[in-house]
Hints:
alpha/beta
Amino acid sequence: MGITFQPEALPTLIGSLPMDNHDQATELVFKHTPEIPLWVQLPTYKEEGMINQFLPGLPGITITPEHIYIDTKKNTFEQEVLTFYEEYLAISDMGEDIANSRFALTKETARGFFSFLSHLKNLKKQPVAVKGQITGPFTLSTSLVDENKKAVFYNEELRDIIIKQVAFKARWQAMQLKKTKTPVIIFFDEPALTGFGSSAFISITKEDVSACFNEVIAAVHSQKALTGIHVCANAEWSLLLDSSVDIVSFDAYSFFDRFILYPDEIKKFLEAGKILAWGIVPTLSVDDLRKETADSIYEKWKEKAQLIENLGISLTTIKKQSLITPSCGTGSLKLPDAIRVLELTSKVSKMIRETL
């Protein structure tokens, strides 16, 4: 890709905040994580939910008070599919401009993105990198259903459409953000991966999921941007560590004991120069969040980093190839707790950078 990026344990965030003002939320991001800021999603607005936000542009999307689904039986569906692919191919094969295509984010569904761009233009000091995010192809295609309430992942045509939708919306983000002349990181949020291998997804193979990732990662890499995959609980980590992704983002606070069960894959991942995003500041339990301090979280990180050091990776390398993050977004927390997450993330990052 031509990008060498060592974050040196800098802090960054995981997207959502419990606020209703995008400019104020963006200012909060820049206050606590100015080195690697990101655009915010505010789930208080239903159009900024994980599934809703990236649906515009999909063929057959039908929204009722009860649910959202792809209606493959509607009279115009086949024509909508044809138009979708025509636009996709015009961009990918013929070089037409993606900027004003169906794959662009809009102010109606992603006001945080445009607030972010506005703030970036007025900065006196350039960030080290900038971060965007999008719901990943596996989560989107297993959460969205057709008219029969069957996940669209199980329909190969619909799955392909979802993958291409995610790939090009991520590519569009990368193209916009790289105008800042700083390294760009795009995270794919994949909470549904926690269910991979369970009875819920019994017929889905590792190859099926890997194929989803390969295409969306390649779309971002085409813009010389870095990719991350974020999972907020446990997962089959080899699926991500063995992929072409640049950053694996995991809940290091609650699930490190599961993550470290993949020692060979972790060592190979880090030896390749890739990055771990340590979700070391708890967000899933308010009790955990309120009992912890920067000192206690720092000590927890050091203990866990020691276990990776025992794999034959120096602590210096671990630090260079680490981001420090919350374990997940803060959109479901109360605002004072969310602000505490941001404060702790920044403080723990600073402690690691200054003491190791």
